[in-house]
Amino acid sequence: DTGVSQDPRHKITKRGQNVTFRCDPISEHNRLYWYRQTLGQGPEFLTYFQNEAQLEKSRLLSDRFSAERPKGSFSTLEIQRTEQGDSAMYLCASRALTGTKNIQYFGAGTRLSVL
Amino acid sequence: AQSVSQHNHHVILSEAASLELGCNYSYGGTVNLFWYVQYPGQHLQLLLKYFSGDPLVKGIKGFEAEFIKSKFSFNLRKPSVQWSDTAEYFCAVNAYSSASKIIFGSGTRLSIRP
Description:
heterodimer, A: mainly beta, globular, B: mainly beta, four-stranded antiparallel β-sheet
């Protein structure tokens, strides 16, 4: 499968625990994006990377959230001290720097449930 | 700030009926426009896109959309829906010069009665 891969697909955690999600973009895609989607809503932008540089962060990304892309390939999104309001689907997308303009390809997402 | 409005939260149609889903966006500059579809249990997929040129764009599975700049609209249409079109449809916008985020609407759930 050469699409965007996310792991795990589902995560159930207790309030106050830390969780980490992983995203593997399409090979050679320079840009990687994280979105959050809650029930009945469209995806909301969280942050994006160009290679290993984090270039933009949404105000939705509180201090408890951190994202990294250390080698410009896969990325991780960590949520510390989870709250019930963090329950959502976390989506990753990637796109090439050139050639396909702004077409972002999405992974299947990680569904987080905070109990 | 950019925003996207989708007027219908849930649309129910019978097979072979015609479909039009409304989408309006708010942004003063040049935009890229998208419709994404999410079939039950599957990930978001690009249905069609508008970057420039002919304002009537055709996508996969017989869908098309028309960009009307004066109305800030990008409505999705299909002349005859099938049961397999049951899905959630998201309109989205990105500022033409922006490399970053896509702004999504809240989605329209389409249910097709067989």
